[in-house]
Amino acid sequence: MAGNWKMNLNHQEAVVLVQKLSWTLSDKKHDYAKVEVVVLPPFTDLRGVQTLVDGDRLEIGYGAQDVSEHDAGAYTGEISAAMLAKLGCSYVVVGHSERREHHAETDAVVNAKAKKAIGAGMTPIVCVGEGLEVRKEGRQVEHTLAQVDGSLAGLTEQQVADLVIAYEPVWAIGTGEVATPDDAQEVCAAIRTRLAETVSEEAAAACRILYGGSVKAANVAGIMEKADVDGCLVGGASLQADEFGGICRFY
Ligand code: PEP
């Protein structure tokens, strides 16, 4: 379960939220052993989150929402994979629909970013998914698989096996319009089948596929019941510890 905070919470608020989340997850009535919980704060919060997670030995992973496709140098405003790895990040979101839309990120850029993340020892969370027009035309599978092909080009079998892919229909992000569990399963299953065909059965089985789009504690169980949904990428609901904790107790 990964919480994408987007551009919310300063470094002090970030520490408070991670503390609250940690208290929520320490609820002895629930067994979190089978759930990996990850937060994805803004860059400016990462050092504070690292200090808290390391100091209190919290079982909460963390990562960034983006990474540069370059290693170092004259790229004002960019953050490199090496910098994020040095901060203890285990995950990096690449190709979120908001980056694709507002920063014109193409599959080739997403692919380059994913490779930089892997090269620095982190796991990319590669986001794919169709917009409303494509969904209305019934082309969601074809559209999303083209993004998968482009974003994962050139990755080795092991790299694909270790990857996280997030299927996020754009029309369901931040809209309250959650895809039905069957909608999520249709595309997540198609992604897994594509990986089986283009990489290997083993890599397809090992690769974790998340669903994202208006996931809440109240709707997560039905989504998680689906065979090809291994977890969720959560935006708005991850900003409240109780709500995100409830999502982590999906079973
Ligand atoms: C997201 O930002 O990846 C997301 C899924 O947002 P939300 O849960 O708010 O729809």
UniProtKB/TrEMBL annotation:
<feature type="binding site">
    <location>
        <begin position="235"/>
        <end position="236"/>
    </location>
    <ligand>
        <name>substrate</name>
    </ligand>
</feature>
<feature type="binding site">
    <location>
        <position position="214"/>
    </location>
    <ligand>
        <name>substrate</name>
    </ligand>
</feature>
<keyword id="KW-0312">Gluconeogenesis</keyword>
<dbReference type="InterPro" id="IPR035990">
    <property type="entry name" value="TIM_sf"/>
</dbReference>
<keyword id="KW-0324">Glycolysis</keyword>
<dbReference type="GO" id="GO:0006094">
    <property type="term" value="P:gluconeogenesis"/>
</dbReference>
<keyword id="KW-0963">Cytoplasm</keyword>
<comment type="pathway">
    <text>Carbohydrate degradation; glycolysis; D-glyceraldehyde 3-phosphate from glycerone phosphate: step 1/1.</text>
</comment>
<dbReference type="GO" id="GO:0006096">
    <property type="term" value="P:glycolytic process"/>
</dbReference>
<dbReference type="GO" id="GO:0046166">
    <property type="term" value="P:glyceraldehyde-3-phosphate biosynthetic process"/>
</dbReference>
<feature type="binding site">
    <location>
        <position position="174"/>
    </location>
    <ligand>
        <name>substrate</name>
    </ligand>
</feature>
<feature type="binding site">
    <location>
        <begin position="4"/>
        <end position="6"/>
    </location>
    <ligand>
        <name>substrate</name>
    </ligand>
</feature>
<dbReference type="GO" id="GO:0004807">
    <property type="term" value="F:triose-phosphate isomerase activity"/>
</dbReference>
<dbReference type="GO" id="GO:0005829">
    <property type="term" value="C:cytosol"/>
</dbReference>
<dbReference type="GO" id="GO:0019563">
    <property type="term" value="P:glycerol catabolic process"/>
</dbReference>
<comment type="pathway">
    <text>Carbohydrate biosynthesis; gluconeogenesis.</text>
</comment>
<feature type="active site" description="Proton acceptor">
    <location>
        <position position="168"/>
    </location>
</feature>
<comment type="function">
    <text>Involved in the gluconeogenesis. Catalyzes stereospecifically the conversion of dihydroxyacetone phosphate (DHAP) to D-glyceraldehyde-3-phosphate (G3P).</text>
</comment>
<dbReference type="InterPro" id="IPR013785">
    <property type="entry name" value="Aldolase_TIM"/>
</dbReference>
<feature type="active site" description="Electrophile">
    <location>
        <position position="96"/>
    </location>
</feature>
<comment type="subunit">
    <text>Homodimer.</text>
</comment>
<dbReference type="InterPro" id="IPR022896">
    <property type="entry name" value="TrioseP_Isoase_bac/euk"/>
</dbReference>
<dbReference type="Pfam" id="PF00121">
    <property type="entry name" value="TIM"/>
</dbReference>
<comment type="similarity">
    <text>Belongs to the triosephosphate isomerase family.</text>
</comment>
<protein>
    <recommendedName>
        <fullName>Triosephosphate isomerase</fullName>
        <ecNumber>5.3.1.1</ecNumber>
    </recommendedName>
</protein>
<keyword id="KW-0413">Isomerase</keyword>
<dbReference type="InterPro" id="IPR020861">
    <property type="entry name" value="Triosephosphate_isomerase_AS"/>
</dbReference>
<dbReference type="InterPro" id="IPR000652">
    <property type="entry name" value="Triosephosphate_isomerase"/>
</dbReference>
